[in-house]
Amino acid sequence: MQFHSIDVDKSLHEVKSSKNGLSEKEVESRTRNGVQNKLEDTKKQSIVSKFFAQFKDLMVIILIVSAVISISMALIEKKYGNLFEGGLIVFIVILNATLGVIQENKAENALENLKKQAEPFCEVIRNGETKSVRVEELVVGDIVVLNAGNIVPADLRLIETHNFKVDESSLTGESVAIEKNAEVVLDERTHLSERKNMAYSSTIATYGRAKGVVVAVGKNTEMGKIAVMITTGKKELTPLQKSLNKIGKIISIAVLVIAVVIFLVEMLVPKSPNFMEAFLTAVALAVAAIPESLPASITIIMALSVQKLASRNAIIKRLHAVETLGSCQVICSDKTGTLTQNKMTVKELYYNKNMIVRATDSDSVQKHFKEIVADMVLCNDCEVIGGNINGEATEKALVRFAIDSGFDANNIKNSNKRLFEIPFDSNRKIMTTVNKTADGIKAYSKGAYDFLIKKCSRILISGKVEPLTTEHLKAIEKANVEMGEKALRVLCLAYKNFGDKFDKTNEKTAEEDLIFLGLVGLIDPPRPETKDAIAKCHKAGLKPVMITGDHAETAFAVAKEIGLAQNKSQVLTGDKLGLMTDAQLEKDIGKFTVFARVTPEHKVRIVKAFKKLGKIVAMTGDGVNDAPSLKIADIGIGMGISGTDVTKDVADIIVSDDNFATIIVAVQEGRKIYSNIQRTIQFLLSTNAVEVFTLFLTSLFMSSFVFLLPSQLLFINFITDSLPAISLGLEPAEPDIMERPPRDSKLNIISLDVWAKILYQATLQIIIVMTVFVVGIRYYDNKTASTMAFLCINLMQLLHAV
Predict the structure, then answer these.
(1) Catalytic residue flag (residue 588)
(2) Which CATH class is domain 345-523?
């Protein structure tokens, strides 16, 4: 049922309730048979399941197989001293898994510390009496009482509203609190953010009071539907994981080929062939071909980078997430609270025939400016307590402007006692207070320009009251239009001086024959660092995109200011997007950098469209409405301060300072990690090739000599290979790393160029090592030759790492 499209009486009838609420008996019946008013908690993995999840990578599986083979060979040959090698491989695998679990737990604990407690109780009317109940005990048909500051506990069809406003930014992306009206009946197709007769679960009442009947609870609420979308999403393997799996397959094939070739050679050489001996030799060399330290080296490199990012306000929940961010090509960002401050701010002020951006010292001493500040503070229900401004977002912006202009808001309120108030309502769109001031009794009004300007007959110019002429009105209208074109929310300010007397019995006089003071333009401004961060994105070849539930005009104004869009043709609205097929969206999506008035479903479609084009997509956000798209993106980035618990749960990275610029830092670290891991893999594969082929050549042509002892091989594999490999992974980023385009995610981490380098480096080292070994045999003895080869391999690998 579309409750916003039916009136109050029909809504109550549909849920079988009344304004007196349900009886306790009816509540019990509905509790037994209905849906609970809570969302299913995200199932957390146990330590054991997290541990075993680390063994999914193909490289790790290969290591486990090699350990089993190594241990089995030692037992078959009864060479129990050789159990050490298999045991060491097992140790490395367990160490790798342990590091992964430790990092995930650290991120989980950090996330828990960021979470905020939800409001557990709400006021309801049952049997005609108001009582407090737990939010999860609400049922469909309950009558909920809401006051400013309350979190809406379920989806409600409002049945009474008194100057009621709701902040829906976490659900819809709308940055301005929405004025609600229980009496209106809307079209069924009305957008979620424009349903003025509804209040949705998890949104916040910021002004006035209201009553509403519960029409949906738990998973049936708008928030619940989003939660269901989240649970249906599935994370794909990261580009690095895919590359490592490809390398794992190549190594698997190479190991199999080496084993077969060695076995055939051993069987065909002119000596009495021994099947078991040939088989064991083949398996031993095959195991030696596996770069045992590769998975652990990569895990350590990423874990150390994750710790570095944590100190710079980026909490990484999955080790591979930071590398994925480094390879991303598109960053889809929510507007409210991510690119902007989620804090309404006075951007412009028009008065005395001038438009100003901020107050100057000369302004603050003018009588005109003082009257404007008095209007902002006195016709306002905000409270300033301990430096914090509590109240509705627009009113907070007015008080903050007064304070920033050097005025004491509390002193103004305390020295100008409020005598009377005419509250704001949706019909008049004006709020007026009558205050006793040092200059007599004055009425201060603020409201929508179109409504309040009609109440004005005079204007304050340079401290003098003059008649409001046609010329004045043209200038004021021009200023109003200019502010509107900048997507500013415009408020009109006016006042009236009653002298010593005011007749409370005739309140209408407080809004008649008013004196025009000025216009105030407000907006949720961009974060100070956002413009620079967007410029860095462009320089790094990234495509930043704004996705918001806000109006197209507001979204474009912010996008233009931060360098995200230059003209309105780059803006696509949700209505137009909804008419496009998936194929059309994929074809045209590159034309747009701003998506406005979109739903959570639209956001998911946008992310999917970019991914269909082969792009690696990052999605940032803080509201519940961002969660499904964060889940479906290659990398989800949640905000730590303003982010909802739902968003933090599904995100891969939490930006704990809510700073968009922190994402760019993480992108740079991700690119550096990829580059360093590539070096590490190149180093380990080339050094392993040296060990395998020197062993192969000596067993083929010099089988009567011992090339390397098992203990020497172990030292090379786990000391000489591993430590330089990790150090390579900690190299600083190259200076131009953020001036290159993102890498193609389809390309393997080991490109043809890298394979060529591996072949060249390995061949050169093999020639040198074999030359040293042959010289040792020729002029010394086998033991000395083996030592010379061992030292040569170690020295070559250290030089190779440098």
Answers:
(1) no
(2) alpha beta
